[in-house]
Amino acid sequence: MKKILARSTPLLSAFFLLTGCGGDGGTTTSQTTLQSYTDAVVALRKDGYRVLPGNAFLFTNADCPTFVAIFGSCFGNNSAAPYVVPQVPIEGSYVDPNYAAPLNATGPNGQTTNIVYRLSDDDALITVVSYPSTAAYFGYQSYVFTSEISNYPVSLPLQVVAPHGADPASRYELFASVGNDINNVVVQNQFQSPWNGQVVVYVTTSNQTLANALVQQLSANGVNAKAILIERLGANVRTGNVQTADDLVTLIRYAEPQDQNAANNWLNNVNNYVKVYKVSKPMSVTRYPTNRYTPRSSNSELLLTASLDELAGLLNGWLTSVQTTQTIQTKTFTPSTVYDPVTQTPAGLVGSDCIEKGTICAGDNQDTYTYAVSPKIQLGANDTMVVAGLNHNLFANSSYISLAIYNASEAAGVASASQTNPDAVGFNQGTLTGSAEAVLRDLGLYNNASAALKLALPKLYVSLISRNCSYAINYCVDLEGTSLIPADANIDMYERAYLRPGDTTAADLNNMLRPRVISGGIQP
Asked: What is the pLDDT of residues 471-497, one digit of tens each?
């Protein structure tokens, strides 16, 4: 198996295939602060801590084939944004030979690191980040990646056995969030706006005693205590460095930057701006309780149900007229989560639910209202499919939305369309605002719309997807030449709506409308 994660920093520039990532290189002041903060982490050694440095790995769509080769899946990666993934030193930890060892990489001092890691109650992952330039979203989130099958006596359909070679099946893939994402709004509420070179220190640990000690000592070493964010591993995480412990992975998401050139510059030098350490010291253990997710709220979008249905009907009629050999269907995207506003509890593709049941969560992120998922679709070489949805940004239910297209069999993201919310993020970027009216006009359908639909059009969006865009090309996602999705592969799509403005998490999906897909290739 090719060890893709061992590549050196200069090669990272080859992977800038996506929009929605990055920032500038930071100012001299920010680099000075970053150096002083990393010096403060290293200085923990004089207080009896073991401090081992790691790397940062840039994951993009181009890396999906390697992960598919190992896991059979790319876990529904967001094709609108790459990920920065801490590679944690694995000295003293068990590394599964079947799915984790192929991802081993050489660290800065010749030590082995890996994106899959374990933490005991004496350990913490410390990630020091000099923030990139302003974007719609930046989040830090850890996950239980796999857990032993023996922890789950009940068999469920969404349990996925991890690769195990010739060994008996022993672990389930969970990829389940350990709690709330520490996003840029959380950072701003505790510290200040982090963009453009502010330095933030993330500490992931299960031990409240260790967390408190690290905050105290890092502060004594010159780190601003407000810039230290604790990510708590709750009691539902089986900690330890031994084979029976849960293993973890951490994702840093950076999506929809205002300045793409600055974004590329930051990512091209990501190991200069993201510093990773595993820090250990035996001490008394006070475990954090199992994390609860932040309650959600939203503004109702339901009054536009009839308008969205009418829009989808017009597009269905048009597609029927141009793809005459197919039966054109309209289907509503399916939610992957449910949210109970009374108990304020999410379930489905929700980390705590997956950890409890041993089911696959595929890197869930509770900062998005749901992964609204389309049915599987067979898209021929000359076919077009259409998505009609509601721009949640315009209801103040999201800071940005993305429509991502996947190779359905591999859950591998290949392309996307996005839209930011200028009221939430301070800039407007994307192709979805205004698209509903523009597409209807391009297709000669505008005059067929009712007065109510015409009034609603500014709050709706339309996106076309094709392997050969020939209609409304300014609003068409062109899959031509996308090698990650061969001609015979089924496609599906996810809509994400990130961060309700004014909140630290996603909106309540119960009041929100999900998109409609119109296609002749919808599979049963």
From this structure: 999 999 999 766 667 888 899 999 999
Instruction: For residues 320 and 285, give the distance between their C-alpha atoms in angstroms, rounded to a whole number.
Output: 65
CA–CA separation, 49 and 45 (whole Å): 5
**Contact residues for 483 (Cβ-Cβ < 8 A; gap 6+):** none
Give the C-alpha distances (Å, rounded to integers) separating 138 from 75, 104, 187, 270, 509.
20, 26, 10, 14, 21
- pTM value? 0.92
Element (H, E) at 64: helix 64-71
308 CA to centre of own chain: 27
What does the radius of gyration of the chain's CA atoms come to, in whole angstroms? 23
d(CA 234, CA 291): 6
Classify domain 302-335+370-519 at the CATH class level: mainly beta
146, 169 Cβ separation under 8 angstroms: no
Reading the block at residue 522, the tokens are: 């919808």
| Phi, psi (rounded to 5 degrees) for 12 | -60, -25
- The pLDDT tens digits for 90-102 are 999 999 999 999 9
CA distance 448 to 227: 55
16: which 2 tokens?
């800038």
Q: Where in the chain is the domain with CATH 2.60.120?
A: 302-335+370-519
